Amino acid sequence: MVQAIGIDVGGTLTKIAYFTKDQQLKLIHFPSVNLQEVSDWIVSMKEDVQIGLTGGRAEQLKMFLRSHENLHYLVEFDATVAGVNYQLKKDGHNFSDAIITNIGTGTSIHLLNANQHKRIAGTGIGGGTLLGMSTLMTGIHQFDEIVQHSANGRRSEVDMLVSDIYFGNKTPIDGGLTASNFGDVGLTPHLVRSKEDILATVQGLVGEVISTLSIQCAVAENVEHIVYIGSTLSGNEPLQNVIGNYTSRKSRTPIFLSDNGYSGAIGALLSKYDVN
Ligand SMILES: Nc1ncnc2c1ncn2[C@@H]1O[C@H](COP(=O)(O)OP(=O)(O)OP(=O)(O)O)[C@@H](O)[C@H]1O
Ligand SMILES: [Mg+2]
Q1: N or C, which end of the chain is more exposed by having fewer CB within 10 Å?
Q2: Which of 14, 61, 105 has most ligand 1 atoms within 8 Å of CB, for mutation?
């Protein structure tokens, strides 16, 4: 019998975590546009299940769950950090200080300092930007499709690298860095770019803005590890590559968790047990 569930109601996705009766961690998600569906799923669980609830749209889900008695609200960032700590341990990592960058609909950046944490930065560039720009520029709006097409694209005729500007001459900084995301388009507007190339470049833009900001935070706070989480990374190898490569290039250590979208839900679940 399931004793407890953790729910993170995000701007785009509602993530749910629970332990099955043989103590396996089970993770599922629903679109947040249909909270009735989420509520129906919860009601189908046994009646007195304990619920740990977090996320920006938690209050909205609460309205659907009015009659539920065992409901406990957690501050989103506390739940997320609790989940990240659990996942780091589970994945075999062993460090106590890190930058945590949560790439949800938007992106929020936290400093984790030996179990203390504070929000230090954020940007509106996030998973919503990936979906929105991809839709506007290519008409493709399904996340999985965007990821798949972008994996087959090349950024070289859309972006402009530092080495493109210096045209074979010695560059003052790493020539392989992006000088201008989408910067090649304005200079060669007659070139037709494929959907694949455009989507790869959108992933590049999103990944580079987020990693640049995260790296600056890591440098300012003097920490080595940057843990990137959020469903935007789920099955999204091209974005993980952009972020991973850029972070390593700047001498910081990127960490991707195995269940990257579920930290908040896991943290909310753990609050119902006495596990750290
Ligand atoms: N099945 C999916 N449907 C829609 N978006 C998806 C899906 N899988 C992954 N994504 C990506 O994940 C992003 C949402 O990530 P996440 O679930 O971490 O955010 P959220 O918690 O809903 O938002 P926030 O934390 O900003 O309130 C989407 O913007 C999209 O880029
Ligand atoms: Mg979220």
Answers
A1: N
A2: 105
